[in-house]
């Protein structure tokens, strides 16, 4: 003999008293806000540092080239090359990050403020 089945749902209510409604066919359970990307935060400190590096590097490159060409008289001419090398090493990261910041501010495809390291940690 088979026991009689009770019509009881998981919550303890009889299943004939629970009302179900069908989901709309166009609704897939997701909302658009889940997929909206928030605008990236502008890293002002990193852009200020890149500007500083760009300006110092430009200044050192100009001074180094003037020292190397002889426009500025120097007592020890062997110290002109390191000024030029340090200027180039400081100029390059500043120029690179300023270029990314400029293109990201103009909205060019492939450039974002997320590509610039942020120092607000």
UniProtKB/TrEMBL annotation:
Superkingdom of origin organism: Eukaryota
Entry keyword Methyltransferase: no
Keyword Membrane: yes
A Pfam family recorded for this sequence: TMEM_230_134
Alphabetical UniProt keywords: Cytoplasmic vesicle, Endosome, Golgi apparatus, Membrane, Synapse, Transmembrane, Transmembrane helix
Membrane-topology annotation of the record: Multi-pass membrane protein
Gene Ontology terms describing biological process: synaptic vesicle transport
InterPro entries on file: TMEM230, TMEM_230/134
Chain ranges passing through the membrane: 46-68, 80-98
Record's subcellular location: Cytoplasmic vesicle, Autophagosome; Cytoplasmic vesicle, Secretory vesicle, Synaptic vesicle; Early endosome; Golgi apparatus, trans-Golgi network
GO CC, one annotated term: Golgi apparatus
Family label: Belongs to the TMEM134/TMEM230 family.
Function in brief: Involved in trafficking and recycling of synaptic vesicles.
Protein name: Transmembrane protein 230
Lineage, highest ranks first: Eukaryota, Metazoa, Chordata, Craniata, Vertebrata
């Amino acid at each position: 003999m088979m026991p009689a089945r009770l019509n009881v749902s998981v919550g303890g209510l009889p299943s004939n008293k629970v009302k179900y409604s069908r989901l709309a066919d166009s609704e897939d359970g997701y909302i658009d806000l889940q997929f909206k990307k928030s605008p990236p935060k502008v890293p002002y400190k990193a852009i200020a540092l890149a500007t500083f590096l760009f300006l110092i590097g430009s200044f050192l490159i100009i001074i180094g080239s003037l020292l190397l060409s002889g426009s500025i008289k120097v007592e020890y001419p062997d110290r002109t090359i390191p000024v030029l090398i340090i200027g180039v090493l400081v100029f390059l990261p500043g120029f690179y990050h300023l270029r990314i910041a400029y293109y990201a501010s103009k909205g060019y495809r492939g450039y974002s403020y997320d590509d610039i390291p942020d120092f607000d940690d």
